[in-house]
Amino acid sequence: HFNQSYFILSLCKRIRTEDGSPLEDKIYVTPTKTRFGNNFDLLSFTSASIFNFMRDACDQAKGRNYLWYFFHAPMYNVVRAEEAEEIFQSPKLITKNMVYDLLKPFLREGLLTSTDQKWHSRRKALTPAFHFNILQSFLSIFKEECNKLTKVLNQSVDKELDLNQVIPQFTLNNVCETALGVKLDDMTEGLRYRQSIHAIEEVMQQRLCNPFFYNIVYFYLFGDYRKQVDNLKIAHDFSSQIIEKRRTLFRSKQLGQADDFGKKQRYAMLDTLLAAEAEGQIDHEGICDEVNTFMFEGYDTTSTCLIFTLLMLALHEDVQKRCFEEVENLPEDSDEISVFQYNELIYLECVIKESLRMFPSVPTIGRKCMEECVVNGLVMPENTQINVHIFDIMRDPRHFPNPNTFQPDRFLPENTVNRHPFAFVPFSAGQRNCIGQKFAILEIKVLLAAMIRNFRILPITLLSDITFENGIVLRTQQNVKVKLLRRKQE
Ligand code: HEM
């Protein structure tokens, strides 16, 4: 009886079915390679091997959801839209799992990592910062950054262009100006900040790859602990100083007025937080956490999507041609293109969605059961870890026939009518969905429209050259390269 209730050598309680039916009828229970649960099933901890391990696990389960037992906790892996729905919709399952603890040294209790009352009140306070009118005011920032990048790209015409070298800078500049109200390129500390964010991500990646590094003592002794501490200090000091400066302006009611150079201060998301602070809803630490969260969530996710979409456009000339025909109709002067006109780029949006489907920037999201609860007819003990594999859900052949083929037409309105509402979830779904999705789509469209109008994009990197890596954000071992040809000269 004890053995039926507990996975003894994995030191955790077992999952059982609510109605007493055999567990295997509801879920694939992954066989363990040792008697100690699935703890030692994976022995080479590289980002690439973990990515492949998860894909193999889904294949082995033949597309069913599957179960692992790790030390102290069962892990429920969801790869089907039907069961993901209950998790996305459950008001009880809003606490993130242990993977998010790795983000906490940087983001502390920001919107992405917080839970319960804190998360509810922050989400309410921050939602207005993503209102349509505000998005409209960000459009000019996206265009400015886009023009800067186009100038750089003009110098790379007819040569090999490494997208990983240029795109992340574009998205970081955008999120920095919209969140904090400062231009990274104009600041002496800008480069150091950019490098520190990159270094913090490298350390996170190191910890994510090796479960031993989840233990802080082991990480302190054998990991890049020092690198993390030094770079966190640079990143935290940078945002904290900008917040201080903007607070002074906010308190003296100078925001929105012209600065010393006669330039009007633009709205930044930080202003919404400063207004909340004035009403006693948040303190300085809280503001720092939220700003860092935006910088982290809004930077790598968007650049990953842009890189994959550009790769797919390069590899599919016919798709690129259709996009060109669509963007050709936009006003010649990009300053005149409105948010509405970007919204009307229906085919380009299908291309972005199809890229996100095949290469979701966030391949897995996690939740944790804070108490024993019933999910999809399974009784999950307290502390059960839940992984929703967005990557596998969006390659389910039941919802997306030929899932490994790039077909943007899947997202034309007439082709989506009967699709399961949770089959396409690159921005997650339910109350903890991505707050920045409209922001991201607009930013992505601004750059893609400009690039497609100005250049023909030719492939250098092929899909077969790419090795995927597991990360908080989907990564590739190799940088993605393309070649640009100027259209006007043709
Ligand atoms: C293509 C771009 C993007 C993708 C694919 C994406 C995807 C996601 C996903 C899957 C989540 C859920 C994470 C989870 O449950 O663990 C999320 C949450 C979040 N995203 Fe995004 N995101 C993108 C862009 C952005 C941008 C541009 C911003 C901000 C400027 C942003 C801010 C956030 C925040 C703050 C959360 C946490 C929301 C909450 O828990 O209430 N994201 N995003």
TrEMBL record:
Entry superkingdom: Eukaryota
Name recorded for this polypeptide: Cytochrome P450 4ac1
Membrane topology label: Peripheral membrane protein
Cofactor(s) annotated in UniProt: heme
CDD domains hit by this protein: CYP4 (cd20628)
Principal subcellular localization: endoplasmic reticulum
SUPFAM superfamilies cross-referenced by the UniProt entry: Cytochrome P450
Compartment(s): Endoplasmic reticulum membrane; Microsome membrane
Pfam families attached to this UniProt entry: p450 (PF00067)
Protein family according to the UniProt entry: Belongs to the cytochrome P450 family.
Transmembrane segments: none
Species of the source: Drosophila rhopaloa (Fruit fly)
Keywords noted in UniProt: Endoplasmic reticulum, Heme, Iron, Membrane, Metal-binding, Microsome, Monooxygenase, Oxidoreductase, Signal
Function field: May be involved in the metabolism of insect hormones and in the breakdown of synthetic insecticides.
